[in-house]
């Protein structure tokens, strides 16, 4: 039996004024997979991700997560969290308080907060970093804190928007392996945005290749490289960075 879809997009179209940036997108995202939205800058990846997160409304069409329409769910009831390229951590809080922030807003008891944060800092291999300030961290460490913060309340779906783009190449490769490990350990569904075909290939169970607001092809990395469905796919996947 195939894995059920946790996220479903039905005819998602998005226009900003006269400019239509997403055209009638249908897509099912399977529970527990790492699905990457890949494509050149400006093709609509971030807009699609923001729509899945419920940050942006569709012009037509709808998105469901676990069967519920995201646009009807209040923000604190949406089972998704997001990690950004620039980490978006709070500079005036230490590492522990950054990870604990959302749990305290939800009024979790102190002891549960402590346990959950310590568990997450262990998952991202920052056990001894709780009392460090954000400016004391390297880029890779800051992104680990952002991951811990996004995973601490066990979302069903984690959206990652070019999370490694600000890191240098060596750290990027290490963080890709770390992301795979964290994905395996948590079982969370990852939806990953990148314009980098190497990142997509290393990380993904399936790749969605986008071009000008449309889906060009969906497949495993092996399928995409063995059978590119169009000249655009062949050219884009063949490019070197
Ligand atoms: P990508 O993530 O693939 O680089 P984006 O989703 O950021 O692409 O952008 C897709 C298109 O939508 C671009 O032409 C961009 O300029 C446009 N766009 C994105 N957000 C807005 C906005 N808030 N207002 C107007 N145009 C936007």
UniProtKB/TrEMBL annotation:
Designated name of the protein: ABC transporter ATP-binding protein
Coiled coil: none
Assigned keywords, A-Z: ATP-binding, Nucleotide-binding, Transport
Organism: Ancylobacter koreensis
Family stated for the protein in its record: Belongs to the ABC transporter superfamily.
The ABC transporter domain, residue ranges: 7-237
Residue span relative to the full protein: 1 to 241 of 364
GO molecular-function terms, A-Z: ATP binding
């Amino acid at each position: 039996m195939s894995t059920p879809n946790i996220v479903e997009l039905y005819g998602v179209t998005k226009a900003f004024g006269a400019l239509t940036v997403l055209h009638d997108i249908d897509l099912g995202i399977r529970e527990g997979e790492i699905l990457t939205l890949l494509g050149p800058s400006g093709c609509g990846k971030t807009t699609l991700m923001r729509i899945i997160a419920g940050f942006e409304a569709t012009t037509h069409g709808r998105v469901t997560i676990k069967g519920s329409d995201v646009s009807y769910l209040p923000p604190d009831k949406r089972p998704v969290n997001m990690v950004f390229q620039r980490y978006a951590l709070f500079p005036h809080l230490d590492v522990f308080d950054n990870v604990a922030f959302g749990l305290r807003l939800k009024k979790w008891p102190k002891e549960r907060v402590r346990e959950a944060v310590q568990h997450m800092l262990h998952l991202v291999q920052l056990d001894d970093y709780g009392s460090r300030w954000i400016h004391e961290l390297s880029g890779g460490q800051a992104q680990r804190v952002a991951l811990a913060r996004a995973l601490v309340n066990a979302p069903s779906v984690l959206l990652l928007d070019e999370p490694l783009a600000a890191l240098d190449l060596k750290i990027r490769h290490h963080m890709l392996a770390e992301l795979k490990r964290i994905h395996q350990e948590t079982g969370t569904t990852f939806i990953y945005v990148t314009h980098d075909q190497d990142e997509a290939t290393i990380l993904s169970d399936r790749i969605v290749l986008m071009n000008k607001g449309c889906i060009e092809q969906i497949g495993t990395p092996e399928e995409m490289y063995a059978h590119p469905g169009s000249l655009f796919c062949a050219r884009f996947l063949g490019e070197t960075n």
